Amino acid sequence: MSPVDAVIIGSGPGGATAADVLTRAGWSVVIMERGRNHLLDPDDPTRPAGDYSNDEIKFLHRHFLGPDPFLEPRTFRRKEEDGDHTHVGDVNSIPATVGGGGTHADGKVPRFREDDFAVLSSFGPQPDAAVADWPLSYGDLEPYYAEVERAIGVAGDAGANPFAAWRSGPYPMPPGAPMYVTTLSGPAAERLGYHPYQAPTAANSVPYDNRPACNNCGFCAFFGCPIHAKGDPVALLMRVMASGRAELRPETFVTKIRTEGRRATGVSFIGPDGVERSMDARHVVVAGGAVETPRLLLLSGIGNDLVGRYLMVHFQTIVAGTMPFPLHGQRGRSVTMVHDDAIVGDERSRAAAKEAGLPWLRGGLVEHGAGALPIVESQVYPWGREHVRLVADSPLRERLAAFIMQGEDLPYATNRVDLDPTVRDVRGLPVARVTYRGGRHELAASAHHGPRLEAILKEMGATWTMITTSPGVGYTGHQTQVPESRHVMGTTRMGEDPATSVVDRFGRVHGLDNVVVADSSVFVTSAGYGPTLTLVALAARAAAAMAGTELPPTRPA
Amino acid sequence: MPVFLSEHEYRTLAAACARLIPAEGGHPGAEGLGVADYVDTLLGAFSFDPPRIWAGGPTSGRHGGEAGFARFHRLTALDELAWRTRIEGSQGLAEREFNGPVVGLQQRYREGLAALGEGFCELSGEEQDACLRSHPEVTDLFYRHACEAAYGPPEYGGNRDGGGWRAIGFDGDVQPRGWTDAEVTQP
User: Fold this and answer.
1) Does residue A478 register a pLDDT over 60?
2) From the list A176, A332, A385, which residue is nearest B24 (CB)?
3) Chain-centre distance of CA B44, in angstroms?
4) Could you give the ipTM of this predicted complex?
5) Which residues of B touch A36 (CB under 8 A)?
6) Which of B179, B180, B183 to mutate to test the interface with A (most CBs of A within 10 A)?
7) pTM for the whole thing?
8) What is the pLDDT of residues A317-328, one digit of tens each?
9) Are A538 and A527 in contact (CB under 8 A)?
10) Which pLDDT does position A476 carry in this prediction?
11) Which of A58, A184, A206, A381 to mutate to test the interface with B (most CBs of B within 10 A)?
12) Which residue from B27, B55, B99 is facing A58, i.e. has the nearest CB?
C-alpha cells in the first residue's frame, strides 16, 4: 500500500485547516486526534454529533472535551529554581477532542495588525526578551486571512475598528446581536476616549455555508456549539470529510514522528485498542497546540535546542464590577465587543513605560463581558444564609460587568515547555512541563491598564469593582500561579536562521524536508489578540506551500 | 434508596448540605433540591449503564427538542479508567497508579461523613455549623458538589424540577429555543 500523502497530528483549527487545503489540492490525508469525536456524526460528517449541550456540569466540571487531567496531566512551575514542578494537573489545557480548541472557544477571531509582525523593527528591543520580527509580513498573510475568514465564516464590521489593519474585502457576515452589557460598556469606553467595536466572531449571524445562524443560547465560551453555528473548525472538518480524501482517526495518540536523515517517514501511534503501531507518510503536519507540539518534537528527538522555548500565554488582566441592575450576561456569544486601544498605546501608556524603565508597553485586546454561569458563581460565595442571599442578588453573575485584557506576552527563553522528569501520562510517556511567569513588561502593562479599565466600569455606574490578574501577582481576589489563559504560543518559533528559530517561514522544521508545524507554536511574538485566526491563516499558507497552491497577493479593497 | 451511601450516611450528608444551602426566602435549599441524590449518583455512577458521568445532548426537552440529556454518554476504556479512579480511588491497581496512589471520592465522602460524627443529624443548626467549620476540607468538598447539584442540569440527580435555577432567575439550558436578538441586546 502506498503511503498517505500527509499525516496530520491534531484536528483543531490548525490541523483542520491544513487538511482542508491539502485535500482540495488532491492530497490524501489521515488526521490523528488523541481525543474523542463528539463533533461530527460518524455516519454523516455534515451533521453535528448531537453530543454538545447547554450543560455546565459536563463542560466545566467533568472534563467532557478533555484532556482529563488524571489521564494526561501537565506540570507547572514558575521558574527553574522552584524544583521539578509545583503543580500537577490541568495547565493551560486546550480541548483534546475532534475540533480541538475551536470547539470550546467563543469564536473571537481578530486579525493581527501590521506592526504585530514587526515588533522589533517597529518598537525596538526589550530587556531580557527575545523580541524579533516575523519572517513574513501582514501583507504576505492577508490573502490567507481573507480565505480562512470565508472558510470558517466570520461575522464582523470591516470599518468599525479605527486601528484595524487593511483588508482586501469585507467580512463574510454582518456582526451578530450585541449583548446588553456592551450597550453600556461601549458608550462608557467611548466617553473616556477609547474605540470599542463589535468583535469579529466565528459564529454565524445569518445562515452560512449550510450551517444555521447562532440562536444566542449563551453557552458559548467553554462549550461546544449544539447547532454548529460556530464555524471554527467545524466548517473545515465537514468539508475535509466530504472530500473523500481524508480519514479521521479519533482516540489516536501519536507517540513519535519517525525520521531518517532529513526526512520523516511516518509516525508511531497508539489507537483506541491501546496497541502501538506505525504508519508511513510522505509528509507530517504537526498541529497539537503550543504545548503538545513541542512535547511531541522532544519525544521524537526532532528540532534544535530551542524547541519549547519562548512560551507565551497572554498575561490576563481581569477587571470586574457589579452593576445596580441585571445584565443577563448568559444570553449571547459570551463577548460581543472589544477594543484595541491598549495594544496601540497612547501618551499615558508611553509615560507608564518610561516610569517602569521600559522602552515601550503593549497591552492587549480588551474583551467586554458579563457573568454567565451559576455553578462557577455560587462556588465563589460563602456557604450558609449568605449563599442564599448572594445567589439571588447575584453580584457575580446577573449583575457582573467585566473586562479581560489579553495582554501581549514577550518571548523569554526561560518561559518554556519541556518534558517533566517524573510525571507520566496514562500511556507511560513523560508529560509536558510548563515553566512560566510574567516578566517586567507584562506586569507593568497590567498595572497600567487595570486601573484604566476600572475607570470605564465606574463610568458605566458599577457600584463595586476589583482588579485581578491571571497568573496572580498580588492584587486582591482569587488567584493562582498557573495562568488561566488558553492562548498558548511560541514554542517552535519561526525564523530564517536555524540558530535562532525552530521552523522556517512556512512552518517547516529546520533540517527536515517534510515536517511542518501548523499551529500557534510558530508565533514569534504573541500580539495582544487571540491567536486562532492567525494560526489558521498560517496553517493555510503552510499547507498551500506544501501543495503548490499558494494564493496570489491581495490589495486593500 | 441511595445507590452508594448507607441510609445513615445519606441522612448525614443531607443534613450537612442543608446547612450549606439552607431553604429560605423562596430558595428550596439543598434538601429540597436533592443535593444528596446528586452526590450519591456521582459516587455510584458506575451502578448505572451507561455510567452517570456525562449527560447526553443536544437538548433536554425543557425548551423544545427531545429529552437527550437523559441519555448518558457511553465511556471509552480510558474515560472509564479516569472516572473509576476518581470515584473509587486507585485501590493499589497498577493501571490507576501511574503517578502514584489516588484517594477516591467514595473514600473522601465516607471518611468526611464519619468525621462529622455519628450524631450529626441530632445536633442543633448552630452546632452543625460549628462542626462543619471545624472540618473545612470536608465542607469544601461537600459545598463544591452542593453547588453543582443545586445549579446544574436536573438529569444529574440534583436541582429537582429546576428549582435551583428558578430560585436564582436562571433559565438553564435553552436550546433549541435560544434567545432572540432583542432579548440579547435590550435590558
Assistant:
1) no
2) A385
3) 11
4) 0.98
5) 76, 79
6) B179
7) 0.97
8) 999 999 999 999
9) no
10) 46
11) A58
12) B55
